[in-house]
Amino acid sequence: MRSLLLAVLALIGAFIPQNADAQASGQQQVQEIISQIKKKAALKFTATTAQDVVDAAQYGLQKISTLNLAAAVSEDAVNRILAAQLAKDISGLKSAKLTLSDQSIRGLLDYAGPLSMGALGTINIKAQIRVQLATAVELNDEKSPADFRLAFLVSDLQIEDLTISKGGQPLPGPVNEIADAIINGLLVPLQSLLNRTELHLPTTVSATVQLKPKEQRGITVAFDKSVISSRLVVASLSHIIDGHFVVVVAQIGGSANAVPVKPKNVKFQDFRTEVNQKLAATGADWMRRGHFAAYVDRGLIRQLAAQMLSSGPLCMNGKMKDLSIHVDTRLRLPPVEKIDCTPTRDCSDKRECAQRQDCAQHAECNRCLVSVFGHCKVRGNDPGCELGKEHRRLQCEAQKPLLKAKCEADKDAANKLCELKKTADKGACESYKEGYKRWRAAGPNFGNIETTRDLLFNGTARACITNIALDDKDLKLKATLTAESSAHVDGKIKFIPLNATGHTFCVAPYEKSLSQDASVPSQSVGIDTSAQFSDGSSKATIQATFSNSIRIVFPFRSIFLKFATDPAFIMTCPILETGILLRLATPDDWWPELTRGNIDQELPGLNLDLDLVQKPARAGDFAISGQLRRNPNGIGGTFTLSKMGSAP
Q1: What's the pLDDT tens digit per position in 364-399?
Q2: Phi-psi region of 373 (alpha: psi -120 to 50; beta: other; left: phi over 0)
Q3: Which of the residues 30, 54, 192, 229 has the least number of beta carbons within 10 Å of its own beta carbon?
Q4: Cα separation of 455 and 327, whole Å?
Q5: E-assigned strands of 243-291?
Q6: Stated pTM of the model
Q7: What's the CA gap between 82 and 152, in Å, rounded?
């Protein structure tokens, strides 16, 4: 009971003036509290100075040999995004009023909210907190598009203005306790929060390949790899805080410049001049416009695309399961004039009858003429040998005219025989043409080919893109598509005679079951396609679509061959069977397409989307809108920040 009474007395005493410090009120109280905060706050600020940041940024800038990636964020965007992020953890933080200049971020944070005072309960304060931040930047390519992460290091944090109240009334009270509450309840958490807060500067680099199959009934598709991405390797980067913007510049890939000595005490004006010169060389004059801006060099696009596409072939595997094809085609006899009986047999004989053989005799006639006890004493030309050589030479020369005459006679005989066959060909064709004329006179529609049970295809297919190359100047993709597949078909085909023509030669319909492999030739198709890009689009993407290149082919012509050789069909349609056999030996162009061609079943097309550049879509809780731009050197754009769900 005694301890409870003492606590109540202490609480009452806290509000009864006892000395100059405790009795302070109004502006004097505020000044006392702020003074106590400065004396008592044990905040550990970074030792990094604005000059340190300038020197480090100059070192990174000097190492950049080729500036191929840049991003920028405006002062307004920094304030809006930072205020939204801080308010998630410290609800009383209402706004940020930061200024971006001279390689540092300085300004005020507005706070209005409650603070716990222990035995005193909860008080309300309004405060302006002066803050100074040093910065550091690194690249994050785990997102698409990639972004730069801007980290903050608190170098100063002070209470600038302060109002204290309890229950809506000014609060006189213990200065030390209020100072402690502000330090521990606001400043320490705020410093910790700022030191781990990151601001993301979206670039436009996407650097991904996506393989997308077209959906099709009866076919399932899987890829060896459906998404391929490329890591962005930083050679060097730097950033400048100036003119109400943070601008990050970087070299991705390649070799950085060697800078043996790190610069010290660099004048900010000199650093700014060098940054502006490098940016001006890119032609990206939009870098200090809008809330965000970004630039990516065409050379970097080519480099990243080459890395992704050279990793190996991009392959699709398809499976067909009872893929059905329905056939219902009217067979109509073409006009008689389509039958061309002009002989096409080539009777030219290109044999060469000129006799150009060498009749010279090269036998060796030098030999031993006198020998004593097995040893040659005299050598010379043997006259008999020389006479033999001359005799053979004369015989060879005499044969040449005879051989030439025989050759010419053989050519003439072969030509005459060929001409007789041409005449026979023409006669046979004219006879068939005359019979066909009478046949067709009964009516051009002679039958219908249909499937009484749909043809069912089962099989596999594989398509790969190889030899991929990208020309970064006009964003043109060149590659080769290779495809191979196999299939089996089952079903029933029925021939139904129509009209007088069909019923004249076929006494009844004819049906035949089929079960055979489909002919699937390997294919190799060249690809040459360009990206479609225009200002205002959301991405620069190379899209290669191959919707008609991968096919399984069933030779429908073989059905007619089976009709013609099947005994049951010969009995049903004896004359039509003869016509089909003749059709197999005549030109295709005057027969119905189905009866002379193939059934082609298209597999799902293989779409390759090479996402090079994408407009960033979000920054924290904010949406980004804007346009992509391009110039001869690269692609980028300017973008505007808006709260999610609201207009920019």
Answers
A1: 888 887 777 778 877 888 888 888 888 888 888 888
A2: left
A3: 192
A4: 8
A5: 245-252
A6: 0.60
A7: 11
